[in-house]
Amino acid sequence: MFDKTLAELAGGLxxxxxxxxxxxxxxxxxxxxxxxxxxxxITVTEELALSQARxxxxxxxxxxxxxxxxxxxxxxxxxxxxGVRTSCASRMLDNFIAPxxxxxxxKFNDAGAVTLGKTNMDEFAMGSSNESSFYGPSRNPWDTDxxxxxxxxxxxxxxxARLVPAATGTDTGGSIxxxxxxxxxxxxxxxxxxVSRYGMIAFASSxxxxxxxxxxxxxxxxxxxxxxxxxxxxxxxxxxEVPDYSASLNDSLEGLRIGLPKEYFADNLNPxxxxxxxxxxxxxxxxxxxxxxxxxxxTALAVPAYYIIxxxxxxxxxxxxxxxxxxxxxxxPVDLEDLYKRSRGEGFGDEVKRRIMVGTYALSAGYYDAYYxxxxxxxxxxxxxxxxxxxxxxxIMGPTTPQPAFRxxxxxxxxxxxxxxxxxxxxxxxxxxxxxxxxxxxxxxxPVGLQIIGNYFSEAxxxxxxxxxxxxxxxxxxxxxxxxx
Amino acid sequence: xxxxxxxxxxxxxxxxLQIRDEEVPGYTQTLxxxxxxxxxxxxxxxxxVEPMAHPLDAVQRxxxxxxxxxxxxxxxxxxxxxxxxxxxxxxxxxx
Lengths: 485, 95
Hints:
The complex is a heterodimer.
Chain A: H1 6-15, H2 20-34, E1 41-44, H3 46-61, E2 72-76, H4 103-110, E3 114-119, H5 153-160, E4 166-170, H6 177-183, E5 186-189, E6 210-214, H7 217-227, E7 257-261, H8 271-286, E8 290-294, H9 302-317, H10 336-347, H11 350-363, H12 369-389, E9 395-399, H13 415-419, H14 426-431, E10 435-443, E11 446-453, H15 459-472
Parallel strand pairs in A: 2-3, 7-8, 7-9
Antiparallel strand pairs in A: 1-3, 4-6, 5-6, 5-10, 9-11, 10-11
Helix pairs in contact in A: 2-3, 5-6, 7-15, 9-11, 9-12
Chain B: H1 5-14, H2 24-38, H3 73-77, E1 83-84, E2 87-88
Antiparallel strand pairs in B: 1-2
Helix pairs in contact in B: 1-2
């Protein structure tokens, strides 16, 4: 049962092969017995899961089940879940019991899903390795000495280890796609505004977007059908019709125009990853696609622009953590300033403090034009590259990451080196475009991700492209050798 | 751009972050490295480029000016560190 996809599990539930309670107990059992090796969960919500599973089985018995009724999944611990600790992997929120549900959580609850727990992540989603978590790093099931990526590393590790069939993630600069690539699973970052951010703890508000993480594109489509759509509680959520993302999965790729940005195949790309990506491109040619080289000339601006905009917005967003209204408060503050400074100094970890300080500096008097405004101009140039390219091709493809999963501790002392991990993923968030990562091979025995980028609101096309690839190949079915039945 | 120790202390104060003395050299180094990275932007010509604040260039949506929220004070204050009579408690500010 643990090796089945959401779509297969939905079929099993509908056919009466097993109940949601049996399925949920099986997942909880695996999490309990195996997650010590991966540390992919911060909180396991056993009681909630069992009660939701029983409710789902009752609904089904009454003939009122939908496609998602009784399907188990986990939420990244950045989504508020009412009555459940929502920590964002920070000491700051270690004691925070969310008083309400994020819209995304409510939508999955309304669809009948079963919440197994809250997954590990980089603190406040700031990181590419999961090492900045207050609860310790999550580990990559393909090699537990290596990182699962980040920030949605716990979600990716739990799926790769077959502890859960699917999980939610968020992506501000690659935080769904990069861990999906490093753990050999499928992840989708939707267009900015496609999924509500209400109740998703804010990092960089002009970049943040929630998305599905699963084993297959077919499952990601099932999840996005639940997640996407307008929400009056998020002022940036787009009022736009939501297509049935499952309906077009099998569309033909005959005539699909693929662009390969030459900047994404430059010197710093691991040759084994380049080879696997090229092999994947050949599969698409067999499926009827045409391939041409394109250029995204402002690619090199993405990392510097991102590391101004994201920290600037983070410094503003994280000013709400003041030790007064919720979250961590220091012991025995002598005055209000001491309360603020020590609560924040003790409650936040190193990388979060670093980014708050970079952002504070970039936004401070006299520096705004040189940093934030300049970065927003660079952002426009990056967007124009994509708009130009996507007027000539249907999708852009390349590697998701320049290297396979690195060792825990390898990059944690050098933030700039860590930031370069996201060289291929950041630009999408700056432009607000959707992108996916799908497994496309192994390099040194570790998973390689193929990134697929499309135009605004082209999620259905991306899922179609990824699904047809997964029909033609079996990279997405590979499981880490450590997985136990 | 290389920062001095005093720059980091000033930034930490502006951000209301307590940084222990022994941590200041480490932050001075890593923040200088990050600023050197982002300074690569300065070489880019952005004359006449409109800054991009929102990926879809959307404008703020407005709603009708009607009451939409109910009072949830008790529920929302249940997670506060210190509350009395519906008020958040902080160290004395006014003598």
